[in-house]
Amino acid sequence: MTIVLGIETSCDETGVGLVRDGVLLGQALASSMEEHVRFGGVVPEIAARAHVYAIVPTIQAALDDAGLTLHDVGAIAVTTGPGLATALHVGVAAAKAIAAATGLPLYGVHHLAGHAAADTLDHGPLPERSIGLIVSGGHTSLLHVRDLTRTPIEHLSDTLDDAAGEAFDKVARLLGLPYPGGPVIDRVAAGGDPTAVRFPRPLTGRTDSRLGFSFSGLKTAVARYVERTPDLDVADTAASFQEAVADVLTSKALLACADQRVDTLVIVGGVAANSRVRSLAQERCDAAGIELRVPRMSLCTDNGAMIAAIGDLLVRDGAKPSSLDVTVHPTIE
Ligand code: KG4
Ligand code: ZN
């Protein structure tokens, strides 16, 4: 059985994972997140430079984690897009260099397909068709996932403005809570009343954008509420905001399942850690007879294991490797 080395550098995480026959053998991650905090978002040039420093040590750390050397590896997989162009180039250059030096086959991989594949490392093969909800600081997408190696991911919807995680981060700032806001809001909301404030549920109800997301209006609604409420209850506000996000995300994910007649929902991304998103998704999936799959947290956020997971599926499927002139696709759907 071939061991696949997966490399991910589409944003601020340098991720490397090793997978053989659907089993995660080891992984390592370096993040430049702290370098971006003072800019309030990921700065592509800083991310790319951090990848340059981190890529070789992270590959070595993943090999060490698995107790392997590069000689044990049988194929290389790398994210080619979507993502930040300069950041993607670092991973692709490293993958090509290893492939050129060793003669190993190289596979260019779609980042969002990788997110969906991450769950297979925890819960086994995906059914023939599933819906993927990818919710992080950078993505809010609904995907129709079919055979991950043969059929391109079908993008059902995206956010028109902020990503869900970004909304958590911005609302945390409005409430005087630290970055990253998602985990803090989750914690603070546990002591609040989610029905205290009825915040809007953007793009739900009768709308052209049945599956589309929008979070900037919700953020503005929270900002207005904070401005006009002198004795603000932070816990109630956080809980009510979180309830609105969880309601919108899960109702649209369930709509997508119904539209596509699919009975498996996979949720990944940093926001998949949110306790209310998880509990409401579980409630609604149970009511609709849909299986909910959420992988462990380290596989939800950007990582190299998910890219190795797709590479492993490609190898086992006998797919043709990419050529050595494979390049980045920052904006592919
Ligand atoms: O997938 P991720 O780690 O990184 C990228 O976006 O690339 O996602 C990070 C996002 C941040 O916006 C963070 O606030 C959010 O996920 N997040 C959460 C929770 N944990 C992390 N949002 C809501 N509730 C959480 N428990
Ligand atoms: Zn991602």
From TrEMBL:
Transmembrane intervals: none
Domain called Gcp-like: residue spans: 24-308
Gene3D superfamilies: 3.30.420.40
Keyword Disulfide bond part of the UniProt annotation: no
Enzyme Commission number(s): 2.3.1.234
Highest taxon in the source lineage: Bacteria
Entry's cofactor comment: Binds 1 Fe(2+) ion per subunit.
UniProt KW keywords: Acyltransferase, Cytoplasm, Iron, Metal-binding, Transferase, tRNA processing
The keyword Iron belongs to this UniProt entry's keyword annotation: yes
Catalytically driven reaction(s): L-threonylcarbamoyladenylate + adenosine(37) in tRNA = N(6)-L-threonylcarbamoyladenosine(37) in tRNA + AMP + H(+)
Protein's name in the database: tRNA N6-adenosine threonylcarbamoyltransferase
Source organism per UniProt: Nocardioides flavus
